[in-house]
Amino acid sequence: MKFYARRIAFYVVTLWATISLNFLLPRLLPGDPADIMIAKMQRAGGEISETQIRNIKALLGGTDQSMWEQYINYWSRLLQGDLGISITKYPTPVVDLISAALPWTVILVGLATVISFVLGIGIGAWVGWRRGTWVDHLVPFTTVLQSIPYFWLALVLVAVFSVALGWFPIIGGYDVFEYPDGPEWSWSFIGNAIYHGFLPALTIVISSVGGWLLGMRNMMVSTVSEDYIVTAEAKGLKPMRILRTYATRNAAIPSIAGFSISLGFVVAGSIVMEQVFTYPGVGKLMIQSVQNSDYALMQGVFLVITVAVLAANFIMDLVYGFIDPRARHNV
């Protein structure tokens, strides 16, 4: 119980610090972000109301209110789900833009991360179990793939499979000409989205599976030399049972911590990869916000990403404490 109480307290304090930092960032920037945002909104959409101007200044600073009053108002708007108005696609609320982009990133990067983790752990366990044989040659091959910048790998895949062979589309998350009204819930649209997302997902899997494989292989080599593995072999247990029940389950525990961090960053997406494929995810949204100096959108994306990372780590801390009793006692 002490372990869980300390974990909860730590993440509550971290969440408060994250939200406070998100509040302070625009106010620490040189110049006046509120005036910049108002000027861009006027150029993009004409006149804006006094209420909108007051809200923008309250969101980004530049009002007559004290910093403490602005901080309280920021928390009030945040609890109501108000993250401001985006100037990138004025007058769309930031919440709507993030809500539209988030499913694309979570589904694509989430599935690719899970596939990469499962492949890396499974193959790494087998390579570690068969150490010293020909399967060890998989390690340097996958390590080389991991060392290749994933945006360069994405460009290569586009050049080969999209431009040269024409097997896959070059850009987008779906065919905008076939579905001019936007995404819809139908099997044909899901198939079209999978077709467009295959190369981006393949990029993530190829560039990340090597890290999981190498880490699991090294843990397996260390685990198979433990006394309980030797005892299991001496008892005459079948090798496959030893591999699955004793070696793999224990060797995979450290990888779970890394997997939790990877899941947390799923929400951030693969920023450059999404830009290469013009994929409509959170990563592309973040680049657009930086290019357009859209402070409200930057704040919203930063907040969603950090909260997702904290939530993933918090859940995995609880799971880790459950599967590994040593973590609960080393507090």
Automatic annotation (TrEMBL):
Pfam families: BPD_transp_1. It is found in: Cell membrane; Membrane. Coiled coil: none annotated. InterPro entries: MetI-like, MetI-like_sf. It comes from the Bacteria. Its main location: membrane. It is a multi-pass membrane protein. Keywords: Membrane, Transmembrane, Transmembrane helix, Transport. Belongs to the binding-protein-dependent transport system permease family. Residues 102-316 form the ABC transmembrane type-1 domain. The lineage of its organism: Bacteria, Bacillati, Actinomycetota, Actinomycetes, Micrococcales. The chain crosses the membrane at residues 7-25, 101-129, 150-174, 194-214, 251-277, 297-323. This is ABC transporter permease.
